[in-house]
Amino acid sequence: MHEKLQSLIIEDEPYYRSSGNEVALFSAAMKRKLPMILKGPTGCGKTRFVEHMAWRLKLPLITMACNEDMTASDLVGRWLLDAEGTQWHDGPLTTAVRYGGLCYLDEVVEARQDTTVVIHPLTDDRRILPLDKRGEVVKAHPDFRLVVSYNPGYQSAAKDMKQSTRQRFGAIDFDFLPQAVEVEVVAHESGVTPEIATRLVSVATQSRALRGRGLDEGISTRMLVHSGSLISEGISPHDACALAMTAPLTDDPDLQAAMSGFVEAQFGPRP
Amino acid sequence: MNAHFEAIQGPVSARKLGMLRDIDDCAYDALIRAMPLISDYLKNEIDLADLAGLLLQIASEKPEAARAFADRIGNDPSLAGDYPGLRRWAVHGLQKHRNDIECMLHHFEWGSPQAYSDEQALHDTEELLRERGALLHYLAGFGFAEFSIDLHEPDTDGRQTRAVTIDDGVIRYPRRFHGDTTDRALLRRANIAHVAAHLRYSPLRRPAGNRRPSLVAMTALIEDARVERLMVRDYPGLKALWGGFHTATREVSGFDFAGLSARLARALHDDTYIDTNPWVGKGRELFEEAASKGLDDVNAFDRLARTLAINLGKMRLEPSADRQPEPIYRDDNAILWGPDTALPEDAERHSEIEIVDALQDGEKAERDVEGIDVRHRYRYPEWDHRLSELREGWATVVEEELPRRKTWPSLQRLTQPKIILSASARVPDRAIRLTRLTEGDEIDLNVVVENVVQQRARLSPDGRIFCRHGRRRRSTSVVLLMDFSISTERFVPGSFTKVIDVEKQAALVIAEAMEAQHDRIAIHGFSSNGRHEVNYRRIKDFDEPFGEEARSRLAASASRHSTRMGAAIRHATALLEAEAADHKVVLLLTDGEPSDIDVAEDDYLVEDAREAVVSALSKRVRTFCVTLDRRADHYARRIFGQRNFLIAERASTFANHTNRTLTRLLAL
């Protein structure tokens, strides 16, 4: 392993509670070097899953959060200047390709479509990364793996992956965990009792029924963990749920009223 | 004729009465016959004119109903003293029973106008309608997304139903809420949660058979307690929510049927409540025993309800006829019993508040099943400025299927104004990147490096090292709404061109200019024939090119009927809402003020159109009007607002004016 990547190795096991066969599927895909798409609503555990898998596969994890201003150079690298002259600096993608690592492009549809095209030669059987500015073709290290993620729920038609990009990947659909498992996760991550966690998860389950009634997405597991930790800090459940769940989720007064109702249905009327 | 009647006569009322006589002399005669009695309740001429106007409106819709109304007033003249209540009652009858003349006549003969002037009920109703959205979301959270919330009809004798009723897909609320001390929002949530408990766990619509009223009431009470307990397992907070409404005690509730039931309800809900009454104690004991064996066995609970009912019978206690649910958040449990229920059934099965804002989910379009009339129909509310209320679903917009032929004569152009819509503003867009600029917001690192490399290689760099994000054109969607009422057949004063032709010219010019700019434009037209038939023609839709076919449709459009502006604006707004543009504009081309055959009131349609414009604005749709009516100033200003209309006096400049207007609009 290159010493550059040593710090990106994950030492301790990140907590991940599997609810299906995604670990087996993903391991098999990684074994056959198949690039993967992870789809799913926000806060359902996509990033945590990648961290967990990187730890399992003992690969350094190189994460990039994509955005509109990102250029191809930001991914592959660029020439920079020093006293001696120009010097090539590898981008995160090139680093992963050259030395072997798990490259994770988070929210990949936020990047412009022409930027993501640079991954095309990497994701078919060529497994090469041409650096035209440097006149070099980097052959992928045997340990190089590519994973991207996005949330199909709220993205507009304008932000979508090209067909030519899509068809190079395998995909796993993520959704919120079954109730009992989610309770386990919330209790573990936030430190509340399973009893409180059950109530929090019930609120979230009710809010998810409002999808399509003006709510883009229901309360996510991440939000539940946030409000759970506030409750562990000694904040009253009503305040914690308002702060970490109902207030951030929507500005619509009707929806907020309904969700305060769900909190009330678990924790009783506000004293 | 008495002296007071003579005193309140005047030119305004005389005009209204004259119109009434022309439309329906029977109703007129009935009114005049009743006048000696009614006139005592009318303060002045305006009151008389109002009454005549209301009768006129009913007569223009259903003459029989007008006669029934006039007779009713004659029999009960005191009704005339409360005009708003009377008006609300009449409008309600016209709308609700619009398809059933029998029901409508019954409404006017036997309905109770008093119920419509109960201030408390009006206030409660308004409050409920405000909260309706939140309550439906709340219910959806329990898994019942397809329900609507509605109101109970007031009883014929003016008595208000107090309890909530669950029906198929509808939850009916009373018009007037009791329990004034409590937090209303809390009470309604307790209601809805209780309703959800029934829907989730109760066996619905069982035949009641020959059960006695006391058994029916007791079964329902036990069932309430059972489903609430089941519900609390999943939603533990509900226990405290419901608990707040259990206030029965020995002192407050007493020992009659209702009192004991309320105490039992509380005892079953609250373990800490202590009640020394042996019957309540027995009920509690039996219930807990059954509950310990499982809450899902309905029959076991039925059996214990029977035992309790028999015990009550031994005490010679019977439920009173007008028993109300106790505690107040519970429903009347009509949903538990099938058709042969011992409880009175709500005869009114039609929905009262129709939630058919057209183009909303599910109820997009009603199609006639006969297969004859397959036109899409949409219902829109109308604004009653006298009552400051929306009349729900009052006007029906009918979309016409246009003949798809190509043989219409094409439009002759009068003039060919050259139009450039250049003012469309541009908005920043980070997805567009402009690089290699001599000045800009950011330095482009790649280019800088390239420049320095060239410098060191003793070449001259070009120095354009900046970049910034670009702008894209603001996207625009315009509905060009053309007035096709019969008045547009007139010639424009001072020329030999018909108004409709001028409108078509303008539409042609604007559509071409907009198309050339890749803006989205739709050309629609409207004319109305009473509130049930506002015809809406889609000459060119957003997704359709302005080609031969659309042109010939435009050329072929003929004028007829009247101008019900508000409904057309609402429909255009609804269509624009589906568009994803930065700018949304309704541009109305017209030749006169709104009018329709079934409206006699002067300001009604003007005020309605104004409301339509205002509510369009709240949906980010702007409305602008270009009119050929020189006397348009007073009403156009009222409808569209100070700067949102333009009076084009000459036919030759109409298209130009319209276009300039649009340019200005889009530049804003």
TrEMBL record, chain A:
SUPFAM superfamilies: P-loop containing nucleoside triphosphate hydrolases. GO terms for molecular function: ATP binding; ATP hydrolysis activity. Pfam families: AAA_5, CbbQ_C. Residues 36-169 form the ATPase dynein-related AAA domain. The keyword ATP-binding applies. Keywords: ATP-binding, Nucleotide-binding. It comes from the Bacteria. The keyword Nucleotide-binding applies. Residues 182-265 form the CbbQ/NirQ/NorQ C-terminal domain. Transmembrane segments: none annotated. Belongs to the CbbQ/NirQ/NorQ/GpvN family. This is Nitric oxide reductase NorQ protein. It comes from Rhizobium subbaraonis. The lineage of its organism: Bacteria, Pseudomonadati, Pseudomonadota, Alphaproteobacteria, Hyphomicrobiales.
TrEMBL record, chain B:
PROSITE patterns: VWFA. It holds the Pfam family VWA. SUPFAM superfamilies: vWA-like. Residues 477-668 form the VWFA domain. Gene3D superfamilies: von Willebrand factor, type A domain. This is von Willebrand factor type A domain-containing protein. It comes from Rhizobium subbaraonis.
